[in-house]
Design goal:
Chain lengths: 664, 301
């Protein structure tokens, strides 16, 4: 028994849909479960292509039960969103494996609409959107194919038409229907993203340099300030002998005590940030940052944090102020914390620091400069592939033996040395630099731009940045790591495969920058179109109307559009337009004549009508007669309607229409 | 060739006054190798027209005056015993000529009518088991009085269908009639010059069938014909034979008009003459109904 006429096409396409869905979300699921889903997809493909029988009910159900166990064991219950997504896809795939009636296929296609939408929980990039849109089209086509004998090509064409028709409506609703705050919201899935972590182990940041994932983009309102750009994200103020952590005091103090604007002074610069979804709430800003965005909170140290919806991208405006002296007094009681250090470790480093400090008369500022000199003059080098250091006194080993390190090494060591002489210091991690896009004047900051540096509190001067990288590898400060010449080979060989890796080839680099730009526009205009942007747009369009009034207007407009469409559908059809293009020209002439008050009964032959019109309109007579001649030549004498005659016809129509106007 | 046709029309116009349209229609019929039926009141010039037509075309012709006692053999001929040769020989009747003028055809009885109509259809006469072919070209130009006149036997539909065209002359315009009364008008068709011979006539007929009948025109004919089939006010819908006839007549009309292609205008002009007698309409309303039909059917572009 044949279920539908296009069974193979439907089976094949659905398998492909699920394979593509899987390719988008596999990073979020554990490997064992991924393997399970992939093998189910392949099984489906194999059944279709090799024309084998589908597994019987007992086998499939047993397997489904087993898979459910794997699901619960492997995915776990901690992240309910991912769990449910996994369940949805697993059940859809099993259903597909067993489907043998029309009803089954309809159910699966309905499910795959949901499965497709789940991709947006994890990725909202332009590429993902394009692929998912194609799959939506395919899915609609499949839905149509179940009941029809047409080919997939025709169904896809119709499905395209259908979605294109819906597109203006969707855009209209997206732009104008006010986004109301949700009554209930799905908790966002926990993303398996790389990024900064709460503790700085010198080796961790070096690992980030393997990732070319976009972190955020920044666009300055005015002229962009000069390099370097230290995008602060996390302050680590506790050292446990090996790693730098966030102290409990700092954690509890995250929320800002209201700092008056007088204390802060004028903002240095203001900019807009488009941040990608991240696993952690940290956001990015320069110097002492502040943002008024409703989902962003500012800490007392001038850091920005996300309040919720980590899985969504976010765009916010931020202002940067100079590190304020005011912070000095405010955090006086907390300075002691910033002096803590694991006293028993790294004794060599401690003594070196003390010696240097004494040499410079116990002056903070002089020591600060001396430490720069020390790093500059003792054969330190910057590398992305530092040698592994083990043992208890890792800083000593680095400082006296290896002398090769990534930013984390320098930052750890420097902060430790500052603290050992009683100068408050902390390690800050974030990103340094970024790739500047000339065309749209924005900066893109990638994971490999991750950086760690030191902030020290110099008496009477406030917080200062100390970054040993500046002397070890000054080039790094002026741009992105990807633009660093000396480290280029090291950098590219480190990177997982991507366009960036091939960026020495001019053409590919050009392409990469174009794609990058496109993605920026997408993020800026589509993903960044949030409640705030919409409300400013609505204000511009409607003035200060109430939200419900705007909603009413928008919904009324949509209803009106639908009513117009249905009226149009049931409107008595005009006679079909004639197939021959000369006949169309003839109708143009007839319409024009009608406007001049010369009407033709329907039974009048074209030649009769034209003769009559020529008689009534002496100005146009010659042209009308010529047109009549052409008409009878082509339509009745069957002369070829050549390009010349086509042009002649168009000309005559134009002449007939314009003669009177010209003579007036 | 077309000048010849024009000259013929001019000649005929000298005999039949103010009836150019009818003359052209009659010629159309002959050029499309169809038989012509002229129907009108007595004294309208039917016979004159038919005589003039035959004379101008230079064809051999015979006139048969149909009466109620006319027998088939009076038209077809009969076998007569030849005493010298001791056998029957066939004496051809008046039908054995290129043009047969059947005057007042509906005065004769059905049997005689049938004899003529069989000859028209088959182009041959069967007598005593022998077949006798009729000459080519072979035209029958029949005249008849309107059916409501007394002493008429109406032709059955099947036999009316054999006539390619039916025309009626109608009253002449006032000026023409004035000339007729004054006798300034030479109605002697015997004086008309012979314009063409048989060979030329056949050539013209071939040319006529080569006239271009384009798709929109065929569409128009189909639209008209199917309109009669979907309309209950027509007793008999048009047969395919009628459709073919409309096409042929339109070609001939276009030829007479000096063109080598047909336009929908040609179809409109000849449509009534070709179809009126086939539709089984009441005599007094038939032309109205056909006009209405043409008015309701859109001309394909």
């Amino acid at each position: 028994m044949k279920v539908t006429d296009n069974l193979t096409a439907i089976n094949l396409s659905l398998s492909i849909v699920y394979i593509l869905v899987l390719s988008f979300i596999f990073t979020e699921l554990p490997p064992l479960f991924n393997t399970l889903l992939a093998s189910l997809c392949i099984w489906n493909l194999a059944v279709t292509l090799l024309k084998r029988n589908k597994p019987n009910a007992i086998l499939a159900n047993t397997l489904a039960a087993l898979s459910l166990l794997i699901l619960f064991y492997d995915v776990g219950f901690s992240d309910t969103v991912t769990l449910f997504v996994a369940m949805l896809i697993l059940s859809s795939l099993f259903k597909l494996l067993q489907a043998n009636t029309k009803k089954h296929y309809q159910t699966i296609i309905l499910l795959s609409f949901f499965s497709l939408s789940t991709v947006y929980l994890f990725s909202q990039s332009l590429f993902a959107t394009l692929v998912i849109s194609m799959l939506y089209i395919l899915n609609f086509a499949l839905l149509a194919l179940i009941e029809s004998k047409h080919s997939l090509k025709i169904a896809a064409k119709d499905s395209c038409k259908l979605l294109l028709l819906a597109l203006p409506l969707a855009i209209f609703l997206l732009l104008l229907l006010p986004k109301l705050p949700a009554f209930w919201q799905l908790p966002g899935p926990k993303l398996a993203k790389t990024g900064l972590s709460e503790s700085v182990d010198p080796f961790d940041i070096a690992k980030l340099s393997n990732s070319d994932e976009l972190v955020f983009r920044a666009k300055f309102d005015q002229q962009k300030p000069s390099a370097p750009y230290y995008w602060r994200a996390i302050i680590h103020d506790e050292f446990d002998g090996k790693r730098w952590l966030i102290s409990d005091i700092l954690k509890s103090q995250q929320v800002i005590d209201q700092i008056t604007s007088a204390e802060r002074g004028e903002p240095l610069y203001s900019y807009q940030i488009f941040a990608e979804p991240g696993a952690k709430p940290w956001l990015y800003g320069l110097q002492f940052a502040d943002s008024a965005h409703q989902d962003v909170k500012t800490t007392s140290n001038g850091l920005l944090l996300r309040k919720r919806f980590l899985a969504n991208s976010i765009s916010y405006t931020a202002q940067s102020y100079a590190f304020s002296l005011a912070e000095l007094s405010r955090s006086a009681h907390y300075q002691n914390v910033q002096l803590n250090l694991a006293k028993e470790t790294n004794l060599q480093s401690q003594s070196l620091a003390k010696r240097l400090y004494e040499q410079h008369n116990n002056d903070d500022q002089a020591f600060y400069l001396a430490l720069y000199d020390y790093f500059a003059n003792n054969n330190f080098s910057y590398t992305l592939t530092p040698d592994p250091i083990t043992g208890n006194n890792t800083l000593d080993q680095f400082l006296f033996a290896n002398k090769r390190g990534f930013c984390g090494h320098y930052a750890s060591t420097a902060a430790f040395m500052f603290r050992s002489v009683g100068i408050p210091a902390r390690v800050v991690s974030g990103y340094l630099g970024g790739e500047y896009n000339q065309q749209n004047s924005y900066m893109s900051i990638y994971q490999y731009d991750a950086h760690a540096w030191v902030e020290v509190l110099i008496k009477n001067k406030g917080w200062q940045i100390f970054d040993a990288t500046a002397v070890v590898s000054p080039e790094r400060l002026n741009g992105s790591l990807s633009q660093h010449l000396q480290l280029n080979s090291e950098f590219t060989s480190n990177l997982s495969f991507g366009l960036l890796r091939l960026s020495n080839i001019a053409g590919i680099n050009w392409l990469r920058l174009k794609l990058e730009n496109l993605d920026y526009q997408w993020t800026n205009w589509v993903l960044g179109f949030d409640q705030q942007k919409q409300s400013s747009l609505l204000k511009e369009l409607f003035g200060n109307k109430q939200l419900w009034q705007i909603s009413l207007i928008v919904i009324a407009t949509v209803c009106l559009a639908f009513i117009c469409y249905f009226v149009y559908l049931s409107w008595p059809k005009k006679p079909e337009s004639p197939a021959h293009s000369l006949a169309k020209d003839y109708l143009t002439v007839v319409r024009w004549c009608n406007k001049q008050g010369i009407s033709a009964p329907s039974n009048q032959t074209p030649l009769q009508f034209l003769a009559y019109a020529a008689q009534q309109l002496p100005n146009e007579r010659t042209y009308i007669m010529q047109f009549a001649q052409l008409y009878s030549d082509v339509r009745y004498r069957q002369l070829i309607f050549s390009a010349y005659r086509k042009k002649h016809s168009k000309n005559l129509v134009k002449l007939i229409k314009t003669t009177t106007k010209r003579t007036l | 060739m077309q000048q010849t046709v024009q000259a013929i029309i001019d000649d005929l116009s000298q005999v039949i006054f103010g009836k150019q349209q009818q003359i052209k229609l009659a010629l159309t019929c002959l050029l499309s190798q169809g038989h012509l039926l002229i129907e009108d009141l007595p004294g309208m010039g039917k016979t004159t027209l038919s005589h003039a037509l035959a004379a101008v075309l230079g064809l051999s012709y015979q006139r048969v005056q149909f009466t109620s006692d006319l027998l088939p053999s009076d038209i077809l001929g009969s076998s007569i015993f030849n005493a010298n040769e001791h056998k029957f020989t066939f004496h051809k009747g008046p039908i054995f000529s290129q043009v047969v003028l059947a005057d007042e055809i509906n005065r004769a009885g059905p049997k005689t009518q049938s004899a003529l109509l069989e000859a028209m259809e088959e182009n041959q006469v069967t007598m005593d088991g022998d077949k006798h072919a009729l000459p080519t070209p072979f035209f029958v130009i029949a005249t008849q009085n309107p059916l409501y006149q007394s002493g008429t036997y109406p032709l059955p539909e099947s036999q009316l269908d054999r006539f390619f065209m039916r025309i009626s002359l109608g009253f002449p315009p006032k000026e023409a009639e004035r000339k007729l009364i004054l006798g300034q008008h030479n109605r002697d068709y015997a004086h008309l010059p012979v314009r063409i011979d048989t060979q030329q006539l056949i050539e013209i007929q071939n040319k006529v069938s080569a006239v271009m009948l384009s798709e929109p025109v065929v569409d128009y004919i189909l639209a008209l014909v199917s309109a009669t089939r979907n309309n209950s006010q027509f007793a008999n819908a048009l047969s395919p034979r009628a459709s073919i006839a409309v096409g042929k007549a339109a070609k001939a009309w276009a030829f007479i008009d000096g063109r080598d292609f047909v336009t929908p205008d040609d179809v409109q002009t000849i449509f009534a003459s070709v179809t009126e007698h086939r539709l089984g309409l009441q005599h007094d309303v038939s032309s109205q109904q056909i006009k209405q039909l043409i008015n309701t059917v859109d001309v394909p572009l």
